Amino acid sequence: MVAVNLAVLAWMLITSVREHREIFATPFDWPGFAWGNYAEAWQSADFGVAAANSLILVATAAVAVVIVAAPAGYALGRSVERAAASLTLYFALGIGVPVQVIVIPLFVLMERLSLVNNLFGLFLLYVAVSLPFTVFLLTGYFASLPGELEEAAAIDGASRLRTFWTIMLPLARSGLITAFTLNAIGLWNEAFLALVFVQSTDKQTLPLALLGFLAKQQYSGADYGVLFAGVAILVLPMLLLYVWLGRRIIEGMTLGAGK
Amino acid sequence: MAVLIREHTTVHRGQGPTITRQRRRAFLILALPAVILYTIFFVGPTLASFWVSLHAWDGVTEMRWRGLDNFTLLFEDEVFLAAFRNTLAILLAGGLLVFMLSFALLLGMRAMAGRRFARSVVFFPNIIAPIVLSVLWGFLFSTDGLVNAALGGVGLDAPNWLGDHLFLVIFLGLIWTNTGFYVTILMAATDRIPRYFYEAAELDGAGPLQQFRHITMPLSWDVVSTAAVIWTISSLKVFDFIYAFGGTSNDLPPIHTWNTAVFIYGQTFGGRVPAYSFGYASASAVITLVSVIVFVLLLRRVMRRDPIQF
Amino acid sequence: MMRRSVSHRLPRAMVILAAVAVTASACGIEGTKNSKVGAPEPGETITYWSMWEENEPQATVIKEAITAFTKETAIQVKVEWQGRKVLQKLTPALRSGDVPDLVDQDGNSVRGAMVANGQHHDLSAVMSAQVPGEGKTVAEVGPGRYRDLITDSAGKPFLVPYEALGYGIFYNGAKHPELAAASPATWDDFIAMLDGRKAKVALDGDIGSYAALWTVHALGAELGAGKVRELAADKTGGAWSGPQVRPALERIEKLAKGGYFAPGSFGSKFPAMQEKWAAGQADFLLMGSWAPSETQKSAPQDFQYRALPFPGMSAVQAAVIGFAVPKRAAHPAAAERFIASFMKKERMQGLATVALNITTRPDIPAPEQLADIARQLTNKPVTPFYEGLDTLGTYPIEVFEPVHTEFLSGKITAAEFVTRLGEKQAEFWKKNS
C-alpha cells in the first residue's frame, strides 16, 4: 500500500510536467519536464489571490474549530451530567447531514446577517460545519485520557476550568493537532460552500479557482499537464503540512502521555 | 467515543452539592460556545430542511405543501432505492474492508522501520483531489489500460471495468482513499499504549497476532468504536469521489453508481440543466439522516464494552 | 496546430481590429442617441455576473465592449467573472432578492434556473430594439433565428443569444479530403462511406449524453422537429413502440452491432476517446462545436477540423449562449441597453476572431475550424440541442441515458430498448406528475 501510494504521488507529479498529447498517448511514462505547466496553471487559474485567501481562511478556521471544540469535547467526554450523553449524540448526528441540503436555508440566514460574499462569513460556516466531527473526535479523545491526574487536581481543589486548561489540554495535545490537521485538509479542499457563498473573484479560494479552471477547459481547450500542475499546487501544501505535523503528533504524544 | 459507548465511570460519586453546581457551571461554560455556533449555523438550517422535505420547492418561489408525498414517492423511486443500496454497500461492505485493511496495516507497520514516513504516505490519498484519482483510475482501468494489460500478461480475461463494473472500480477507490484516514486515527490510539505491555507480552512468548488481540484491541477499543461511528456517519456522505467519475464538469456519473449524496446533488444543483427539487432532495436527506441514527444506535449497542483505564 | 493557426490568423485579426477601430470612431458620434430601450440614467451602475473567467478570451471581448459602452452612455458595468457555475450562484441569490442585473449562460441552463421559476425578465423590448448605428433590430441582425430556443411558455424571449453552438460529425479534412465536396446525404450513404473507408467512430460512451447524441439525432432526422421530445414526454412510455420510430432505431442498432465504434468507446473515461480521435486513431466524432478547441492540444499540426452534417437531417441541433436579466434586477433598462449595444457587429466580432466561437450574427465569419458548422447554422432550420430532452428535468440522466447506453453498446436490441425505455419512462412520469 505504501508503495502504491508513493507510485500515485510520483505519477501525479510526473504527469504535471508532461505535455498533454504525451499523457494520452502513453499515460505511464517519464516526464518531459514541461515546467511551463506550472506557470500556465498558476496564471490561468488566478491561483495567486486564491492561494492567499485559502491559506488565511483555512488556517484561522481550523484553529478556531479546535479552540471552540476542545472545551466542548472535554466537557462532553469527562462529565457525569446526563446532558453530556445526549449532547454528544446531538453533535454526532450533524456529521451525517449533507451540506447540499442545508445550503438554501443557510443562504437565507447568511443573507440576513449580510455575510454572503464575505470571507468572514465563510470562516463562520467553515467553523460551524467542522464542529460536529471535531467535537465528536475530541470527545472520544478526552474520554480515553487517563483519569488519575484529573482526580489529583480535584483533590488539590483546582476548579474544572483550571483543570481543563492546565492539565487536560496539554495531555490532549496530539488529539488537538490531529483534529487541526484533519480539518485543515478537509477545508482546504472544500468547494461547495465556497462556490455558493463567494461571489467575487478576488475572494475565491483555491478549490474554486481549480474548479473554474476545469470548467474553462471545455471551451478553451483541455491540457491535462496543466491540469495536473494545478492539482499539484492544491495538494502539495497539504502534503507538506501533514508530513510536518505528522511528526508533531508523535512528539505531542510522548510529551503529553508522559509514559 | 466513550460517551456513546459506555455510561460514565463512577469516579465523582459522593461529592457535595456545591461541587456539583460548580461542575455544572463549568460544563456550561466549556460546552456552550460550540453548542451555540453549531445550533445556529448547522442545526437551524437542518431543521429548516426537515420542514422543506414536506413541500415541493424550487428554492426560489413559495413552497407548496405536499405532506408525506415526497417520502412515499422516494420509496417507489428505483433511482433512489438503487442509490440507497449503494450507500449501504459502501457503509457495510466498505466499512468491513476498510477496517480489516487498517488493522492489517497497523499490524504490519508496528515493527516496520520508518513507520512515521509510512504513516504519512498511507494517509496521502486522503489529501489528493478526487479529480486526479478519477483521471488515474481512467487510465488504469480502461479497456486498454494498465490493469487489463497486467491481467492479459498473466493470461486472464480482461473485463470492461469502466463499462460494466464502474461501481466496483469506484468502490475500490473509496476503500483505498479512506483506509489511510482510519490507519491514522487508530495509530494515534495504539501509540498511546505503553511499550512495556508489549515487552512483557513478548517475554511471555506472545506473537504479533496475539499481542494485537490481547493488548492492542482492548486498549484501543474506545477509539476503534469511535472510528466505527465516524465511518458509519461519513460513509453516507461520500460524494466527491463518485462525482469525479462524471466525465466533464457538467455531467453526473451514471445513475447506477449514485449513492444518496449524489442523488441529493442530482436533484438539486447537479447536471447540465439542474432539477432544483429541494423538497424531494430534502426528503431523501431526511431518510439518510434517519438511517444514520439507527446505525449509530445499533453500533453503540453492539460495541458497548467497559473501557480499560491504563 | 495551435501555433500554426495563430500565425495564420494574426494578420487577419489585425486587419479586422483596424476595421473595427475605424467603424467604431465613425459611429461614435451618433452612438449615444440611439437609446430606444427603456430610460436608463447615466451614471447608473449595473452588475453583471459572467459565465466566463476573467482570463478567457471571451472575457477580453466583453471587457472591451463594456469600456466602449460606458464611454457612450456613462453607465458603469461592474463585472463578477463567476465562471460556468454562475447559475448555481444565482439560485440562492434569487431567493434572497439581491440579484445581478445581467447574467449569461446557455439557453437551457437559463431556462432551468430562471424561467422555470418565473424569475426571468421578458426581453421582447431588446429583441425589437435598434442595434445602435445599424438601422436594424437586434432580432434582425441574427439572434431572431434562434427564437425557438430562447422563448418561455408564453412565447416571450428570456435570452438574447450572442454565441451559437451547433453539432456535426467532425473529421480531419487532411485525412479525408474528398468528404468536403461529397458529404453523405442519407444514412445509407453514410454507412457505405464508413464501410468504404473502414472508418471508425470515436465516442466517449461513459458520458450518457454524448452517447445519446447518435440516437437522438437519428430520431430527429426521421421524425422531424419537436417529435422526439413528444416521445419522451409520453406518460405511458408506449409512444416508443410506434411504427415511425422503428427505422431510426434499426439504423442505430446496426451501427451499434456493426463494430463501427472505435475500441474503447464504451470502456474508457472521457476524454480518452476524443483524444484518440484527435491523435488520428479514429475517424469521426459526433460532437458540439467546442470539439476543436477541446482537442487542439492533441491534434497534429496538419489537422483540419471539418464537420459533416448528420445524414438525412434537414435541421441542425443547436444551442445558444446569451444574456438574460433576472426579474428582480434593480436596473433592467440599463442592462437591456447594454445587451443591445453588445449586438453591434464591431463588439461581437471578437467572439469569432479572438475567442474562436460562432456568433449569432451570420455576417460575422466563423473561425475556420468551425466554418462547416456555421454554414449549417445559417442555412438550415435550428432545432434544440438534444431535441429538448434536457428540458424534461432529470429524464435524460435517470431514464433515457442508462437504457440507451446499453442499447448503443450493443447489449440490448432495439426491441428491448423500446420495452425497457417505455417501462422506465412510465415510472418516471408517474413519479413526476
Task: Explain this structure.
Chain A is mainly α and 259 residues long. Chain A has a single domain, classed as MetI-like fold, CATH 1.10.3720.10. Chain A contains 13 helices and no strands. In chain A, α3 crosses α13, α4 packs antiparallel against α10 and α10 packs antiparallel against α13. The C terminus of chain A is likely disordered. Chain B has 310 residues and is mainly α. Chain B has one domain: MetI-like fold. Helix content of chain B is 69%, strand content 1%. Chain B is built from 15 helices and two strands. Chain B has a two-stranded antiparallel sheet. In chain B, α4 runs antiparallel to α12. Chain B is flat, with a radius of gyration of 24 Å. The N terminus of chain B is likely disordered. Chain C has 17 helices and ten strands. In chain C, α2 links the parallel β1 and β2. The longest helix of chain C has 26 residues. The N terminus of chain C is likely disordered. The chains are: A mainly alpha (259), B mainly alpha (310), C alpha/beta (433). Chains in contact: A-B, A-C, B-C. At the A-B interface, α1, α4, α5, α6 and α7 of A face α1, α2, α5, α6 and α9 of B.
How many strands appear in the DSSP assignment of chain A? 0
| Net shape of chain B | flat
Taken in chain order, the helices and strands of chain B follow as: HHEEHHHHHHHHHHHHH
Helix residue percentage of chain B: 55-70%
